[in-house]
Amino acid sequence: METVAKEAVAKTVTLNSGHTMPTFGLGVFDVKDQGVITDSIVEFGYRHIDTAKVYGNEELVGKAIADAIKAGVPREELFITTKLWRTEYSDPVQACKDSLERLNLDYVDMYLIHWSIPELESDQKTIKKTPMHKVWEGMEACVEQGLTKSIGISNFNVQLMVDMLAYANIPPACNQVELQPYYQQEGFRKFCKNYDIAVVAYSPLSAPARPVGGECRNVLEDPTIKEIADTHGKSPAQIALAWNLQLGNTVIPKTNTAKRAGENIEATTITLSEEEVEKISTLEANEKVYDPKDWESFGKIPAFC
């Protein structure tokens, strides 16, 4: 596993901010075991940890990071991402400071606007008047004040990115979106490549426990992916992650077990053939797992990405 860890650490992408980001990370949504995060860093070589204010576990993540640093992992090797929740659009600087306090860190490496949908009034319909260009000014202030090295966005479509690039003094360094074999966003990815915005794929294995269109589609049970996995002597999860990586994306699969974290990161050592990549690419079905149109708290406003 030591060799796997070294290879994983070595794989990075240079962001438009000039900083580097590891292309394989650990998503910690709903992760409640501090040891999983520490072990992922110390034992399996993870250097990219992705959390958010709304996950409610920034303090736990901070303790896990502190334990990893005590175990000998330098802070400068770590890439920590957290996110601005829409209830805090009026003051991103204070929100970032609050996240840093919970994380017990002097800075984060990436600070993201979590969703493009603003906060709603209590009627869950009236949109609060905090325009995105004002929110982005606050994000830029976070960089200027040294609270974060890079800033980015999550769940923004091409139209919103074009608008942002028209007013941003600091362009978004990445856009974090759902991206998996059944929801591939090819046009979105091409735009991001053209404008030097890194793509970070959350839910890169989809989310089999969540129903899509009334059915439960499981990427890990897909016959095409299972066939390729058998050819390589790897798991379907490892193959799906390797496919995403070979498209040039960063991936941040979540897991609640250190064992699974160790298995997932082995995807960084897999090289698929062009034919295998294309076979998986034919699985596109425009089936996304996460969409606010299903969420009362978002006023059932459809997501763009």
Summarize the structure.
This protein has a single domain (2-297), classed as NADP-dependent oxidoreductase domain (TIM Barrel), CATH 3.20.20.100.
Secondary structure layout:
Blueprint: H1 2-10, E1 12-14, E2 20-22, E3 26-27, H2 34-42, E4 48-50, H3 58-70, E5 79-84, H4 92-103, E6 108-113, H5 132-144, E7 148-154, H6 158-167, E8 174-178, H7 186-194, E9 198-202, H8 223-232, H9 236-246, E10 250-251, H10 258-265, H11 274-281
Parallel strand pairs: 3-4, 4-5, 5-6, 6-7, 7-8, 8-9, 9-10
Antiparallel strand pairs: 1-2
Helix pairs in contact: 2-3, 3-4, 8-9
SSE order in H/E notation?
HEEEHEHEHEHEHEHEHHEHH
Major beta sheet, specifics?
8 strands, parallel
In the residues, how many domains can be counted? Answer: 1
Order of strands across the main sheet: 3-4-5-6-7-8-9-10
DSSP strand tally:
10
Low-confidence spans: pLDDT under 50, at least 5 residues? Answer: none
Separation, N- and C-terminal Cα atoms: 35 Å
Keywords: Oxidoreductase
GO molecular function: oxidoreductase activity, acting on the CH-OH group of donors, NAD or NADP as acceptor
Protein name: NADP-dependent oxidoreductase domain-containing protein
